Amino acid sequence: MTPVREALRRLIAEGALIHQGNRRVTVPGLTADCLDQLHFMRRTLEPELTRRAAQRMTPECLDRLRSCDSDLNAAIDVGDVGGYLTHNYRFHSQVYSAAAAPIMTATVDRLWLRFGPSLRVVCGRFGTSSLPDKHSDLIMALADGNTEAAAKAMAEDVDQGMHQIRVVLAEA
Q1: What is the pLDDT of residues 82-107, one digit of tens each?
Q2: How many CA atoms lie within 13 A of 21 on its CB side?
Q3: How far apart are CA 134 and CA 113, in angstroms?
Q4: Where are the alpha helices (DSSP H) in 57-146?
Q5: By three-state DSSP, how is residue 26 classified?
Q6: CA 86 to chain centre
Q7: What's the rounded Cα separation, in Å, for the pair 172 and 167?
Q8: Alpha-carbon distance 44 to 64, whole Å?
Q9: 108, 46 in Cβ contact below 8 A?
Q10: What is the pTM of this model?
Q11: pLDDT digits over 20-72, tens only?
């Protein structure tokens, strides 16, 4: 099997793409119900992963998070949608990796595959200058060792992002 076919097969198996027959593949649309489910799952899992990460946080991991956040802020400043999306995902991945909870992290990765394409639409609609960013609050809470404040910042970050997706869906 070629690398492209294997990648497509895996993305279809993960629910990130839908096979339409006749060699057509599409990104699944987000319905309001699907968005509700994704929001619930993210709101449940991501703050818990953040709590776990806070309990295992190291100075090196904090440095990586600060670097990711700095790169993300630079992308926002110049309106670089691709850079924003890349660094936002990288930031979240760093947090989840620090949690040392591979089952939950794999589940969250699959959720990101489902709503990730919609983030690009949100960025196209709103640009990068109006995107919410709770990452600095999260980093401060992690640096202070405040597990619950870190979880709260992550929950707010999830809520804001999912709200923006919901707004764009309602306009479509």
Answers
A1: 898 899 999 999 999 999 999 999 99
A2: 0
A3: 21
A4: 59-78, 81-99, 102-126, 135-144
A5: strand
A6: 10
A7: 9
A8: 25
A9: yes
A10: 0.85
A11: 877 788 777 778 898 999 999 999 999 999 999 999 999 999 999 999 999 99
